[in-house]
Amino acid sequence: MTETLTGDAPVSRAAALPRHPPGDLAIWVFILAELLAFGVFFAVYAVTRMKNAALFDAMQPNLDRNAGAINTVLLLAGSWCVARSVDSIARDARPASVRWLGAAIACGGGFLVVKVFEYAAKFAAGINLATNDFYMFYLSLTFFHFMHVILGMAILIAVWIKARAGGYSAADHRGMETGAAYWHMVDLVWIILFPLVYVMR
Amino acid sequence: MQYKSQAVAKPYFIAALALFVAQILFGLIMGLQYVWGDFLFPHIPFNVARMVHTNALIVWLLMGFMGAAYYLVPEEAETELHSPKLAIALFWIFLVAAGLTVVGYLTVPYATLAKVTGNDLLPTMGREFLEQPLLTKAGIVVVALAFLFNITMTILKGRKTAINTVLLLGLWGLAVMFLFSFYNPDNLVKDKFYWWWVVHLWVEGVWELILGAILAFVLIKITGVDREVIEKWLYVIITLTLVTGIIGTGHHYYWIGTPEYWQVWGSIFSALEPIPFFAMTLFAFNMVNRRRREHPNKAATLWALGTGVMAFLGAGVWGFLHTLAPVNFYTHGTQITAAHGHMAFYGAYVMVNLTIISYAMPLMRGRAANSNKSQVTEMWGFWLMTVSIVFITLFLTAAGILQVWLQRVSDNPMPFMMAQDQASLFYWLREWTGVVFLVGLVVYLASFFIKGEEKAAA
């Protein structure tokens, strides 16, 4: 988007709009596959809930909504930091870009910490995959997402290390965009998962 | 052929094709026994024919993978093989062990074989696909370890490429997963649980990495597309494979006494298993369309494209057909499974082996590609075998649907054998199509002996 803002002649605007998605095309193939996996999981959740609405409604209040809400804020903030980082590198503001990335990684780390406490409380209460259908889905979905947060952080850390070494510039930061796109996917999935499993009745 | 030591692949490929013939012959025997129960009784009972059919398949595919590794690893690493002598020695050990095992299957009763080969010491026999005597299993481990040592040393001293890395990961995974064939708990649920770690995690896990690496290698060679592009595809494909395939093991855990959540996990993840195969199809066609050179070996290109399409149909589509728990509740262990098994094994692993053989054999025989006449013959083999397997799959699917209906869905369910009788028309059709497959195989093999004007090796 920054390219379009700097274009001074209105005629050049259309030409300046990027014709490819940001980042590497391969990551988009991967993101689509991930979204499909979560999509199918959500659909199966929906069908199972429809059949066992009473059980799901009875179990849902046992989840820690505050932890979920804090995690939502953390992921949204993290995504914002990543966007700021890409924006900074596009203006060649390299130190700022590295700092924003660091902040995003910290947000991701915060998410994991909150989640670990949430899981610890559930496991302490003797809840496991076999407890009932609701908890099976709760644990499976959130853990599957949890693994994606870890993967997303691994990618962000790799990008961060390269950024610190001066590996990106305004002219070439596709690698950073690639990592950013994946992180936004992790965020997007949570934005659906949280209301679906924790809140919606 | 750029390195002399690549030539050790040749005996592996030849032996693989010989075992392929044995596999098909025993397949035809079994196919006939479906409709003519006492054919060859008591000399070759159905269970023995089946064991030879499936074990010959596994062994020849492994032979082919080893040959492929010996051929492509030195070229990728840009160095000679660590020890060609070891590779040749292992070839003979493996071949003799496989031969003796088959002779054992055919000449003595299975129980006697188990007794004389020390199955009492560590019982591992008697399980589908893992019927091999303890000695053979130990031999497989020794051969696999020495083979991996040879390949790993070669890669360590040479250039590291994505193709070699993925291939190595696949081959090590193959060896490690095989170790579970030695674990045979008394608890039947646990037995089956870990049995799938060999069977499923081979064909829907690590073998796919080997398949991807071989396909990527051949595509680089025949299309001249940038390595960077091909390697990126390879990484995407293997990531998708592992993400879907590993938890996809759950589609075998629906009804064996494992916890219920496997029905959800198995259904969801295995439903996504067609994706990496679809990516592979796109990959093959994309690369061939973007080719930067016209490679004289058209037959190899055809095999590579065929692998993409048939692996997707056989493993992807036919697998998806019966992978969801509510569907599998009815289709489990019927001819639907057999239909899927035939097209998946042919489309993915037979065809990728024939792809690398088609590409590498002419080079090892001192020419870039076979004569036009030979290639046309090879392509006849391709079409006869591929079309036959499609029809075999369709007939078995029809038999399977009929079986599910008569035996499990209808108001008055029939016993197994009565339902089988009703499907005999489809079994006859399958058997005759099998004969066409054998003709295709003979035509394919004949193409190796057809001379004609050749182009010199590049």
Write the layout of secondary structure elements.
The complex is a heterodimer of chains A (201) and B (458).
Chain A: H1 2-6, H2 11-16, H3 25-51, H4 53-59, H5 65-90, H6 94-124, H7 133-164, H8 174-199
Helix pairs in contact in A: 3-4, 3-7, 3-8, 5-6, 5-8, 6-7, 7-8
Chain B: H1 9-35, H2 46-77, H3 84-107, H4 110-116, H5 134-157, H6 162-178, H7 188-223, H8 227-248, H9 261-271, H10 274-289, H11 298-321, H12 325-331, H13 335-364, E1 367-369, H14 372-409, H15 416-422, H16 424-446, E2 455-456
Antiparallel strand pairs in B: 1-2
Helix pairs in contact in B: 1-2, 1-16, 2-3, 2-5, 2-13, 3-5, 5-6, 6-7, 7-8, 7-10, 7-11, 7-13, 8-9, 8-10, 10-11, 11-13, 11-14, 13-14, 14-15, 14-16
Description:
- The complex is a heterodimer of chains A (201) and B (458).
- Chain A has 201 residues and is mainly alpha-helical.
- Chain A has one domain: Four Helix Bundle (Hemerythrin (Met), subunit A).
- Chain A is 80% helix and 0% strand.
- The longest helix of chain A has 32 residues.
- The two termini of chain A are 38 Å apart.
- The mean pLDDT of chain B is 95.
- Chain B has 16 helices and 2 strands.
- Chain B has 458 residues and is an all-alpha fold.
- Chain B has 2 domains: 160 residues; 231 residues, Cytochrome c oxidase-like, subunit I domain (Cytochrome C Oxidase, Chain A), CATH 1.20.210.10.
- Chain B has a two-stranded antiparallel ribbon.
- At the A-B interface, helix 3 and helix 7 of A face helix 8 and helix 9 of B.
Quick recap:
Chain A is mainly α and 201 residues long. Chain A has helices at residues 2-6, 11-16, 25-51, 53-59, 65-90, 94-124, 133-164, 174-199.
Residue share in helix of chain B: over 70%
| Proportion of residues in helical segments of chain A | over 70%
Order of helices and strands of chain A: HHHHHHHH
pLDDT averaged over residues of chain A: 90
Query: How far do the termini of chain A sit from each other?
Result: 38 Å
The CATH class assignment of the largest domain in chain B is: Mainly Alpha
Q: Note the beta-strand portion of chain B.
A: under 5%
> If strands are numbered along the chain, what order do they take across the biggest sheet of chain B?
1-2
Query: What is the averaged pLDDT score of chain B?
Result: 95
CATH architecture of chain A: Up-down Bundle
Return Rg of chain B in Å.
22 Å
Under CATH, the topology of the largest domain in chain B is which? Cytochrome C Oxidase, Chain A
Q: Helices and strands of chain B, in N-to-C order?
A: HHHHHHHHHHHHHEHHHE
| Low-pLDDT sequence parts of chain A | 1-12
Largest interface by residue count? Answer: A-B, 16 and 20 residues
CATH architecture of the largest domain in chain B, by name, is: Up-down Bundle
| Major sheet of chain A | none
Annotation field: number of helices of chain B: 16
